[in-house]
Amino acid sequence: MPPLSCDDVRELAAGFVLGALENDEMAAVRDHLSTCSDLHAELAELGGAVPYLADSLEPVEPSANLKGRILDAIAAEAGSIEDARARTSAPTALPATTEPVRPAAPIVSLDAERVRRRSPLTWLAAAAAVLVIVALGAWNVSIRRDLDGAQAYAASVDRVLALAGAPGGRAAILGAAQPGGPSGLAAVGPDGRVEVAVRGLAPTSGTQVYEAWVIFPDRDPIAIGSFTPNANGFGTLTVSGAPVGATVTVALTREPTAGRTAPTPPVLSSGVAAGSG
Amino acid sequence: MTYALALRITGDSALAEDVVQEAFVGAWRNAARYEQGRGSVKTWLLSIVHHRAIDATRRRRPTTVLPEAEGPTPAPLIVSDVWPEVAGRLDREAVLAALSTLSDVQREALELGYFGGLTQQEIATRTDTPLGTVKSRMRLGLLALRRALETDGPMSDRTASA
């Protein structure tokens, strides 16, 4: 199809923002926009209301295991992007319908070089995970009443991201061990600071707490701090002085009381913060 | 919400779940394409889900030209704030009220295009309406919807975002 003029694009604008053009027309509009100096404000004007069309639908929940499937698939991809050497558990296979897994980052012989290169990648992986995890929050049709708790969670996610993005910081995506289990993010700083943000926590009762652990390869888990979730199932934790090391797994358990020295199975969610040491 | 959209478009719960899963994993993979400030996370995800659901639906329709495999997901075109939209203010009643201000033919054009996955040309054929009329119904319908949402709905408490 021949290149479009600005007037052509204005005529196609409504169809474009609705996705209701033929594929060659969609492509032609995109081609035009990629080179046109005109801002084509009509696209924003017409497109502004489009996402609200979805809000007119009756809320309907997908099957209970879909969220877990998505987080598993993402965790599997995260594992492939992180240093393959750091993988301690085999990632679950991706569904056949998705694109091939992106190859792992190239291995560079010099450690310092590897560290320098990995940091932005880890940061990107964490930022991407947050997008998805925050978006999964929008999943729940009852999220409105969770607003306050959700905002506290978002603030905690911000702290995790800031630490993960700082020099030497590493991020771990905490995947749920069971579908529907708690999931979230953790970041480990080079000075032993750890930030954890988790959602989907079942309520605790009595003296029960959630305990965060750091686990180094071939060593016993070390408890770093405990917390209780808020009414919305969000939990956050900030720790300083945690032990540091090259590759560390951050794991979450529920314990009958605070101050336990060994985790009570099962591990509810965990993730690997791969790094330099 | 993403699932409701995928289900509405595909009309098939298993396919809708596949679409949502692919969209979320794709979003994760392509998060670098997400530009903060250009649209909320929810808007971004909805646009990906919409694109993939339409894609999946059109593949099932032999009458349409097959879309290019794994075509680029359109960039979000909508400027809005991020968190409030994700966390709440999803007021279905307000959106339904806004939609009710449209004429029947405008609403039908939007629904067939956005939820039905039909192109303007296909809508023209199906409703036995000239193509130019379908185009203007869509345009006027979107403007009317926006106006109604800005006056008395989810968009009313934010600054004009165009």
Describe the structure.
The complex is a heterodimer of chains A (277) and B (162). Chain A has an 8-stranded antiparallel sheet with strand order 5-4-7-8-1-2-3-6, covered by helices on one side. The N and C termini of chain A lie far apart (55 Å). In chain A, helix 6 (111-137) runs antiparallel to helix 7 (147-165). Chain A is of the alpha+beta class. Helix content of chain A is 36%, strand content 19%. Chain A has helices at 6-18, 23-35, 41-47, 50-55, 66-81, 111-137, 147-165; strands spanning 170-176, 183-188, 194-199, 209-215, 222-227, 235-239, 247-255, 269-274. Chain A is built from 7 helices and 8 strands; from the N terminus they run H-H-H-H-H-H-H-E-E-E-E-E-E-E-E. Chain B has 162 residues and is mainly alpha-helical. Chain B has 2 domains: 1-89, Orthogonal Bundle (Rna Polymerase Sigma Factor, Chain: A); 91-162, Arc Repressor Mutant, subunit A (Orthogonal Bundle), CATH 1.10.10.10. Chain B is 62% helix and 0% strand. Chain B starts with a helix and ends in a 10-residue tail after the last helix. At the A-B interface, helix 1, helix 2, helix 3, helix 4 and helix 5 of A face helix 1, helix 2, helix 3, helix 4 and helix 5 of B.
